[in-house]
Amino acid sequence: MPQRDKPPFRADQVGSLLRSAKLKTAREARARNEIDAAALRHIEDDEIRAAVRLQEEIGLQAVTDGEYRRGSWQRDFLMSFANVALKTAKFKARFRSSEGETERDLSAFAVTGKFSRPRGIFVEDFKFLKSVAHAMPKQTIPSPTLLHFRGGRALVDETAYPEMAQFFADVAKAYGEEIADLAAAGCRYLQLDDTNFAYLCDPAMREQVRGIGEDPDKLPHTYVGLINDSIAARPRDMSVCIHICRGNFRSSWMAEGGYEPIAEVLFNEAKVDGFFLEYDSARAGGFEPLRFLPKGKIAVLGLVTTKTGTLESKEALKRRIDEAQRYAPLDQLALSPQCGFASAAEGNDLALEDEVAKLRLVVEVAREVWGG
Fold it and tell me: What is the Cα–Cα distance from 108 to 156, expressed in whole angstroms?
């Protein structure tokens, strides 16, 4: 079976990479005004060049900038829209890791007026990535659903938006503008990072959704509609994927539960090319929901964890791919790490050599399973 010639690829990745000590030091110096923005960007440029070379040497067909210009996978992007403010969500979350559980408040994005995009957000960053990449440059952005889930109606200004339909329309319009500019810059591989579909798989979080007056059975339809409207005008040759994440902060996670509550709606109604799905532990449930995957769409199995440095065995990964084939054809499957390695600048609790070994493992197993 041949490798794919368009995204998502048989061996793929979610996007964020561990920051080097040099990059962390530079960002800290910028925060203290010890260096200016231009000096920081120069260091970021050098680090991104090195990261792209590393990804290409490993054999990945798609490369990212590691999200090296961001402090957070979501905040840097969402706070760039007009009239967005950071608030404390009404949700409580249990952050789980190998060291135990900690309950924390979650942040949420409040929309305090008319939502719009004053300027390009990641467009210039993408242009730089494209200029230094030989492999396909992949751009990741947070899903538009993040502007609603943790607060619902209560965090959307009622004067600006007496009707939620207009709010969702304005979000889709602003996202469409960013995607159009990314497309004009040459982007043909876009990934929407989304935690909320995974949260809707967690029984405890579904109860919290009901507590803010939302219906956890209706939200998947609402959110798929929002995503579809946001990407509606993309070029025909732009591949779009959704990454479903259960939380990824310093090797901890928040949500648990299989994909059954959302799979049929998400896989069949979302007008995207593929889905990056966490499958590195029992918290994600079994492969049975893959039976809803329609022809023409790819499920990228996140079997390699980014939570720890322990390297999976090839034999174990191949066994799990075989298990997944019981519910979806092999030609509709691919392989990746379960999430990024550094959704926040601090990064997960593993070393750079562990990250490299895991990305190499993904490429090697994909070649052995799918050929090429």
Answer: 11
Q: Which tens digit of pLDDT belongs to each residue from 317-327?
A: 999 999 999 99
Cα–Cα separations (whole angstroms), residue 115 to 74, 90, 151, 156, 254: 17, 22, 16, 10, 28
Rounding to the nearest 10 degrees, give the CA dihedral for residues 60, 64, 67, 73. -80
pLDDT at 250: 61
**What's the pLDDT at 126?**
98
- Which residue's structure tokens are 């509609």? 225
- Confidence band, pLDDT 50/70/90 cuts, at residue 100: low
Give pLDDT tens digits for 15-24.
Answer: 999 999 999 9
Output the pLDDT for position 252. Answer: 61
Each residue of 128-151: pLDDT tens digit? Answer: 999 999 999 999 999 999 999 888
Which domains are present in the chain?
Answer: 21-370 (3.20.20.210)
Q: Report how far residue 27's alpha carbon sits from residue 345's, in angstroms, rounded to the nearest whole number.
A: 9
Q: What would the 3-class secondary structure string for the chain be?
A: CCCCCCCCCCECCCCCCCCCHHHHHHHHHHHCCCCCHHHHHHHHHHHHHHHHHHHHHHCCCEECCCCCCCCECCHHHHCCCEEEEEEEEEEEEEEEECCEEEEEEEEEEEEEEEEECCCCCCHHHHHHHHHHCCCEECEEEECHHHHCCCCHHHHECCCCCCCHHHHHHHHHHHHHHHHHHHHHCCCCEEEEEECHHHHCCCHHHHHHHHHCCCCCCCHHHHHHHHHHHHHCCCCCCCEEEEEECCCCECCEECCCCCCHHHHHHHHHHCCCCEEEEECCCHHHCCCHHHHHCCCCCEEEEEEECCCCCCCCCHHHHHHHHHHHCCCCCHHHEEEEECCCCCCECCCCCCCHHHHHHHHHHHHHHHHHHHCC
48 versus 97: the higher-pLDDT residue is: 48
Distance between CA atoms of residues 121 and 135, nearest Å:
23
End-to-end CA distance of the chain: 8
